[in-house]
5-methylthioadenosine/S-adenosylhomocysteine deaminase (Thiohalocapsa halophila), 437 residues
Amino acid sequence: MQADLLIHADWVLPVDASDSTLASHSLAVVDGHIAALLPRAQAEAQIDAAKTLELPGHALIPGLVNAHTHSPMSLLRGLADDLPLMTWLHEHIWPAEGRWVDQEFVADGTRLALLEMLRGGITCFNDMYFHAEVTARVCAEAGMRVLAGMIVVDFPTRYADNADEYLRRGLELHEHYRDHPLVRPAFAPHSTYAVSEAPLTRVRTLADELEVQVHIHLHETRDEVQQVLRAHGERPIARLDRLGLLGPQLVAVHMTQLEDDEIARLADTGTQVVHCPESNLKLASGFCPVQDLLAAGVNVALGTDGAASNNDLNLFGEMRTAALLAKGVAGSANAVPAEQALRMATWNGAKALGLEDTVGSLEVGKAADIVAVDLGDPHTQPLYHPCSQLVYAAGSHQVRHVWIRGRQVLRDGAPLTLDPPAIIEAARQWGARIAQE
Ligand SMILES: CSC[C@H]1O[C@@H](n2cnc3c(O)ncnc32)[C@H](O)[C@@H]1O
Ligand SMILES: [Zn+2]
């Protein structure tokens, strides 16, 4: 076999059906896709590669999928900390966004987020923010995979005056990127408390027609559920169910307030859940019953949320927090074991985003979205179980190489498609302007 690239690694964790850890294996890439994954001796005998990479002490894992974020909010990191969701949002974040968010803010904020995410092994993310056309363009330029949110809220902003205009701008984005290999549009109505019934119904019809995902904040806090119950006489999940929005296309983010019948309904409909453990902890939003959801057969992925409520975009941190928190919430040390946490950050994320045929595991035929992690670092020595070290001990600084669709975007920890000094200088200037007011 002729390959473009052959990588020899000490371990490969493909996140396959049996959660295998393969020692001394090699992975071949042809035309941006995984063409072979086999023992090193066989690879050496069978594969003639244009380029070969030796990675002793490294583990290869699938690119991590950040299933919920607001990438440009990296420029608001640390602006308002230690507040509950509604105070944080209404008194700090929405006023700051009203004052500062324009296309330049989104371009600079997205680049800062990409720098952090690529360095931390994230190769795909699900975004919800204003000016998604700018985020999409920046991602396409940097070679990053993204689900770009076609946002909808009821209130006017500098981006759009009303729901019709939000949808019109979203549909333009869809038209532009419908066949792009890395950028995929998805609807992103903010929540059931900020989007009324008519636009939600329209989103449902359009999402069916265009076959795209619908990404929404749902049951994030007790206050949210009470507010919707008071205003409409039903809980947010019931509202979406009545509007026909529950199902495999719905990506429901946070889900800290769930009753048993709601968990059963999510499982019956195949609704996707995204767990954001660190954002939920920081805003004191509540605890997502991850173990109960998984036991009921619900797909649960992981997200960071925005950097203004986390305050980082680090899925190694989320895997660890998710695994630890699940044990505390379920009162059981075997809730969310390391293999499950890695699966949530990879395969489950891909499935939530409707990308499970393309990414999420290192299997022949899938896109070559690959991350090489150096386990020789003191943080991960000695090494009994690679997966355990990745989830419970590794830091994102141990990510050395990243490929997306076969293109190398990080080499020896250095980004190849982004300009770090320029990105950091732009972020510093935004910080100085925003802090002055
Ligand atoms: C319509 S663009 C997205 C909108 O969502 C806001 N946001 C960020 N994090 C959260 C969160 O955890 N819950 C609710 N809303 C959030 C963000 O500031 C944008 O305005
Ligand atoms: Zn969010």
